[in-house]
Amino acid sequence: MTIPGPEPSEIVETKACLDAKKIRFEINKFLMPNSMEGEFGIIRHPGAALAVPITKSGEVIILRQYRFACSRRILEFPAGTLEEGESPLESIKREIQEESGYSADKWDNLGMMLPCPGYSDETIHLFLARDLNKLEKKPQGDADEDIEVLKMSIGKLNDIIASGKESLDGKSITAWFRACQILNIR
To answer: Whole-model pTM?
Structure first.
């Protein structure tokens, strides 16, 4: 199955915008591909990359990270915003080292996802990182991050997802589902 590419719309007018860290909010009046006119707020995002890290012994590395927007710690895989001029793979190789303290010998592309297409143009590129190597240097993260690195069995992660007792974000659940297909985990 081929995923259709973008169908461009014509922006007629940008009414307002707000630049924030790594994102931009715009209110645009535009002409849709079907010739209808619309007005929508949209969050412009440079894109991101995420990795599902699996150790050589088959354990999963996952982060418990505090997220200000939902005022709690959630489980998620290492991920980060693409820097200018950086490919998605380069980005996630950097992020996995900074956030988890691991590097990987084997990388599989899991495709991409559009997490919130109703109000954002963000695309997240998903990867499976295997044959991990623990780095000597402790993970740094960014100054505004509160991250705990966890190692767990595949069974425990599946139980957590199935029970709903701990919060996982949608991008991590999507990436895990795709990784399970490659790993032949049912």
So the answer is: 0.88
The CATH architecture annotation of domain 48-183 reads: Alpha-Beta Complex (3.90)
- Name residue, tokens 């705990």: 148
3-state SS, the chain, equals: CCCCCCCCCEEEEEEEEEEECCEEEEEEEEECCCCCEEEEEEEECCCEEEEEEECCCCCEEEEEEEEHHHCEEEEECCEEECCCCCCHHHHHHHHHHHHHCEEEEEEEEEEEECCCCCCECCCEEEEEEEEEEECCCCCCCCCCCCEEEEEECHHHHHHHHHHCCCCECHHHHHHHHHHHHHHCCC
pLDDT for residue 154 = 96
Radius of gyration for the chain, computed over Cα atoms and rounded to the nearest angstrom: 18
- Domain residue ranges of the chain, discontinuous segments joined by +: 10-44, 48-183
Q: What is the rounded CA–CA span in Å between residue 111 and residue 13?
A: 33
Instruction: Please determine, for residue 2, whether its predicted confidence score (pLDDT) is greater than 90.
Output: no
- Terminal CA-to-CA distance of the chain, rounded, Å? 23
